[in-house]
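Retro notes (design track)

What went well: tokenization of the new backbones is finally stable.
What didn't: we kept losing track of which sequence belonged to which structure.
Fix going forward: every design gets posted as structure first, then sequence, in one message. First example under the new rule, 912 residues:
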């Protein structure tokens, strides 16, 4: 169970390329992210979250086809390899290969067929799930016509015909069935690539949109109900009648009189307003019920038009980058936009002119990450100079800091949980406040320098950062922002910094093969200097501060006792990295791996294991005591990234070498600068290299995260269904647990439930314990089950509505067993932090609601006081005639009704 971490979610990127799709209910949107797809739920305010499916293609996804019922999805990558995925079970149902790059996939409205376009042809398949067959993809018919690659597809509402657009500026209408008066029809009239072609609702009338910003309106002289089915071959052969012993064939059979061929006529041609010659139309979508046409351009501008009159509704800009994909929900109220340049995903409600979802990932490589002290948030920093804060429960980014002007090298969280500090190559270290979302401190050095690493002490009062060029460590005060000290002594660039979690001791590593321990309380003196055999890349302390792990350039991980400056162990990990071979390299992967090393380390929450990663697709987890490799996690299967395969593909080898190093335009191999790992940005074919830049364990110990070339990958124990019984016996069964529960033997029932380790059964037993019996059960509970029960309460508290019930469990456990738990605080710390995370999450939600209720009650009391003064004045006026004013009575009734209404509203909200 300890190493059963499974892929849980992908953050840091929300859109890469491909087409967007709305789910059937319109509450979520499906977005391709590399070789995976993410589902963003944005309608339900109580459970907004993003989820990345645990299925992956071999290369980046280029198109996604969604079935009309929303249960199936076809994912096609760059090479034409397809996956049939069930969106209900999140499982892969079938693998298929189209052997060529696919441009578009579209299901028919009735769900019986789907069309795939590749090269200059369209292939129609029987949709899977309608018939029981061994092969889920059964080819029905192939359609030829265009002379160049096809670009887009659309179906008629009754699934009788479909239209295909092409790069040869033509549009082709095909019959999905065999029609007598329609085999195919070709339409021209454009001078550029067809971007979108759309049928009118329940009609053969067409709209075609080209890349140069032209819209053609086509009118058909035939309705859908006028299409005549062609008789089958068997019917023609058997259509013979016997007359007086002789046979008369069907050659003399006359065609129906109304079998006129389908004709199209262009009814109009319109042009979009373009701001420049390079502002091409890149994406288009049409909603048939509302006649709404949405078009996106390379400048980030999008237009909304009403067809067929071509009336402009809106013309807005979402960014300055190319809009690559546009999608409209089934109802027609929401529009989704995808911008690959900045990695943006936007959902816009055009009627209210407001954003429903606005997410943007890091459009460049992620460099660093850190968990908040309670594990609710993750902060990431990237080469794009942005610092983003992500919610681990929802998967959404809720704040982005853009003050840095260069790459962010490291981020850190203060112990308070509300202050983020980041270091950058722009020569500044900035502190951000999560209460007001602002940059409240900026730390700089006397001379301009590039900061490569960062560390905060346990109190959050001391900020330190290392320099790449001056070989110095700068120390500032968080309270005053003043530079306290400049620590000099290293003879090479500073590679990493880390504070001892228990003491005020700073460890700095450098390329000069040393690790220096600085005493922050004793005049910034060097306490110890650890000598190593190679350049030091990274170091990290264990949670109790009694051990220091150091990774060096020779692939070694050494463990030190920082108190006595003695090495306690070492792990040789150069053979565990398993580097892939770069397409530009001349040497094999085995030879290249000899010079590789780990660049990031992270202790597990219990301190028994350590995670290590580097320039490889593998993350290794080692047992520190035994110094052996426990498990390797392969973070990516995406062959669109460089250094993924160990051997070169012989099919790509030519007499000039590998096709990857041959520039098709010039016939020469592009030169790579020495030391480059990100690829040459000016190159036509840019292929990023797979690597892991940072690893962090969650404080709760239930998950860990890694920043890689693909994004922020989260691996969790909660997503794995693992049966792990504890001290199981033959007499421990669900029936015996329920029997003890019926006898009101609650403590025995809890022990048996934990021995069986079934979550639903344990929850049933706990909820059956009366509230007044909780303290008695906790007092008599054996010590070995205290940690298990506390961990179960912490996880149940996250999603349960019985807050007071489970908080009572937690309070009783800590009250009766707090002293014993304190003696083994090192091992119990992840459970305590998990409990703290759950309580903090509910505290933040309820505190806002209670404040809102409190202000409403104060307003009601102030209003009643004001009306009481008016009533007294009214009574004094009417004292002479002895009658009470009607207005005072009415005010009193309104006052009581307002207060009662507010109190009932507060009660209902708190109950929910």
């Amino acid at each position: 169970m300890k190493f059963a971490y499974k892929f849980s979610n992908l953050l840091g990127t929300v859109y890469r390329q491909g087409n967007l799709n709305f789910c059937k209910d319109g509450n979520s949107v499906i977005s391709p992210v590399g070789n995976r797809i993410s589902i963003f739920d944005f309608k339900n305010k109580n459970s907004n979250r993003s989820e990345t499916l645990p299925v992956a293609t071999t290369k980046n996804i280029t198109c996604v086809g969604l079935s009309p019922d929303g249960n199936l999805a076809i994912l096609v990558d760059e090479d034409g390899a397809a996956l049939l995925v069930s969106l209900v079970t999140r499982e892969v149902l079938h693998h298929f290969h189209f052997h060529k790059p696919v441009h578009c996939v579209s299901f028919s409205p009735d769900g019986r067929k789907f069309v795939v376009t590749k090269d200059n042809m369209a292939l129609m398949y029987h949709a899977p799930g309608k018939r029981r067959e061994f092969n889920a993809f059964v080819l029905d018919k192939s359609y030829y016509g265009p002379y160049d690659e096809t670009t887009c597809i659309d179906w008629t509402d009754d699934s009788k015909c479909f239209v295909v657009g092409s790069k040869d500026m033509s549009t082709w209408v095909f019959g999905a069935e065999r029609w007598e008066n329609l085999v195919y029809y070709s339409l021209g009239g454009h001078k550029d690539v067809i971007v979108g072609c759309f049928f009118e609702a329940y009609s053969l009338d067409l709209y075609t949109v080209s890349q140069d910003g032209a819209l053609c309106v086509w009118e058909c002289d035939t309705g859908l109900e006028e299409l005549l089915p062609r008789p089958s071959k068997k019917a023609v052969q058997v259509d013979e009648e016997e007359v007086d012993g002789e046979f008369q064939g069907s050659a003399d059979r006359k065609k129906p009189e109304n079998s006129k061929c389908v004709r199209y006529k262009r009814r109009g041609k319109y042009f979009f307003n373009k701001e420049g010659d390079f502002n091409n139309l890149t994406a288009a979508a049409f909603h048939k019920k509302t006649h709404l046409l949405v078009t996106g351009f390379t400048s980030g501008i999008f237009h909304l038009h009403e067809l067929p009159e071509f009336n402009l509704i809106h013309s807005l800009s979402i960014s300055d980058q190319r809009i690559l994909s546009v999608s409209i929900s089934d109802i027609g109220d929401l529009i989704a936009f995808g911008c690959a340049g900045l990695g943006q995903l936007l959902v816009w409600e055009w009627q209210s002119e407001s954003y429903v979802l606005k997410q943007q990932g890091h459009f460049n490589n992620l460099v660093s990450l850190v968990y908040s002290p309670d594990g609710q948030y993750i902060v990431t920093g990237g080469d794009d100079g942005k610092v983003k804060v992500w919610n681990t429960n929802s998967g959404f980014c809720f704040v982005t800091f853009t003050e840095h002007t260069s790459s962010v090298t490291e981020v850190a969280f203060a112990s308070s949980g509300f202050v983020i500090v980041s270091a950058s190559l722009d020569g500044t270290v900035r502190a951000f406040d999560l209460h007001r979302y602002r940059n409240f401190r900026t730390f700089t050095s006397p001379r301009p320098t590039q900061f490569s690493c960062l560390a905060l002490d346990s109190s959050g009062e001391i900020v330190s950062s290392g320099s790449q060029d001056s070989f110095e460590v700068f120390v500032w005060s968080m309270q005053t922002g003043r530079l306290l000290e400049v620590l000099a002594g290293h003879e090479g660039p500073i590679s990493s910094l880390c504070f001892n979690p228990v003491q005020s001791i700073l460890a700095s590593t450098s390329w000069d093969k040393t690790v220096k321990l600085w005493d922050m309380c004793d005049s910034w003196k060097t306490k110890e200097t650890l000598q190593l055999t190679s350049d030091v890349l990274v170091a990290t302390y264990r949670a109790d501060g009694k051990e220091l792990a150091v990774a060096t350039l020779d692939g070694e991980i050494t463990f030190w006792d920082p108190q006595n400056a003695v090495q306690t162990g070492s792990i040789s990990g150069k053979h565990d990295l398993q580097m892939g071979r770069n397409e530009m390299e001349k040497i094999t992967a085995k030879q290249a791996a000899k010079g590789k090393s780990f660049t990031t380390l992270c202790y597990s929450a219990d301190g028994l294991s350590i995670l290590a990663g580097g320039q490889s697709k593998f993350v290794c987890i080692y047992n520190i005591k035994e110094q052996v490799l426990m498990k390797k996690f392969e973070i990516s299967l995406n062959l669109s990234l460089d250094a993924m395969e160990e051997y070169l593909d012989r099919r790509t080898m030519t007499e000039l070498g590998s096709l990857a190093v041959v520039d098709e335009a010039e016939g020469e191999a592009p030169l790579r600068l020495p030391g480059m790992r990100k690829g040459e940005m000016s190159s036509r074919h840019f292929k990023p290299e797979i690597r892991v830049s940072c690893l962090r364990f969650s404080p709760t110990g239930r998950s860990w995260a890694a920043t890689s070339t693909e994004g922020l990958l989260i691996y969790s124990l909660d997503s794995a269904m693992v049966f792990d019984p504890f001290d199981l016996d033959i007499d421990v069964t669900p029936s015996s647990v329920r029997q003890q529960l019926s006898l009101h033997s609650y403590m025995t029932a809890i022990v048996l439930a934990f021995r069986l380790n079934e979550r639903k059964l344990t929850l049933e037993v706990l909820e059956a314990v009366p509230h007044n019996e909780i303290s008695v059960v906790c007092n008599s509970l054996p010590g070995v089950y205290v940690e298990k029960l506390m961990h179960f309460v912490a996880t149940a508290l996250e999603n349960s509505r019985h807050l007071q019930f489970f908080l009572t469990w937690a309070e009783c456990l800590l009250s009766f067993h707090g002293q014993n738990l304190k003696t083994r605080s090192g091992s119990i710390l992840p459970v305590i932090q998990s409990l703290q995370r759950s309580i903090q999450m509910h505290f933040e939600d309820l505190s806002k609601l209670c404040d809102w209720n409190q202000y409403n009650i104060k307003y009601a009391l102030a209003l009643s006081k004001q009306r009481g003064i008016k009533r007294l004045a009214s009574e004094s006026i009417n004292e002479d005639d002895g009658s009470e004013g009607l207005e005072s009575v009415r005010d009193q009734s309104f006052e009581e009704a307002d207060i009662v209404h507010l109190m009932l509203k507060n009660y209902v909200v708190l109950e929910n």
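Added context from the reviewer: Residues 737 and 749 are 5 Å apart (CA to CA).
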